[in-house]
């Protein structure tokens, strides 16, 4: 894994985790208004959704870069 790929992957992971954490904290603040704890499944879905988006983006960009390198090396 080269340094550029590692940096891009870490940046994507940090952004997605940071965004999902902020949204989770916002819902946790709203959860204090809710007495029966109805927001907890929403927190889990939002966090797992953020992880899925990061994984899909990572696979897409890695395959696209690898494909471009393969095509350019055949020319």
What does this structure look like?
The chain has one domain. It is elongated, with a radius of gyration of 18 Å. The two termini are about 25 Å apart. It is about 85% helix and about 0% strand. With about 80 residues, it is mainly alpha-helical.
Give a short synopsis of this structure.
By secondary structure, the chain is mainly alpha-helical. The protein has helices at residues 3-31, 40-74. It has one domain (3-74).
Total helical elements: 2
Supply the number of structural domains.
1
What ranges have pLDDT less than 50 throughout 5 or more consecutive residues? 68-75
The number of distinct β-strands equals 0
The topology string of helices and strands comes to: HH
- Tell me the fraction of residues in β-strands, as a range: under 5%
Rg for CA atoms: 18 Å
The major beta sheet can be summarized as: none
Give the overall average pLDDT: 60
**Could you give the distance between the termini?**
24 Å
Proportion of residues in helical segments: over 70%
Derived from helix and strand composition plus strand pairing, the structural class reads mainly alpha
- Describe the global form: elongated
What attributes does this structure have?
75 residues, mainly alpha, 0% strand, disordered C terminus
SSE order and pairing:
Blueprint (H helix, E strand, L loop, with lengths): L2 H29 L8 H35 L1
């Amino acid at each position: 894994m080269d340094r550029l790929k590692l940096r891009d992957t870490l940046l994507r992971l940090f952004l997605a985790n940071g965004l999902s954490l902020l949204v989770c904290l916002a819902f946790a603040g709203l959860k204090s208004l809710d007495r029966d704890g109805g927001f907890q499944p929403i927190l889990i879905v939002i966090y797992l959704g953020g992880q899925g988006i990061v994984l899909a983006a990572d696979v897409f960009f890695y395959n696209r870069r690898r494909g471009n390198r393969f095509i350019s090396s055949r020319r």
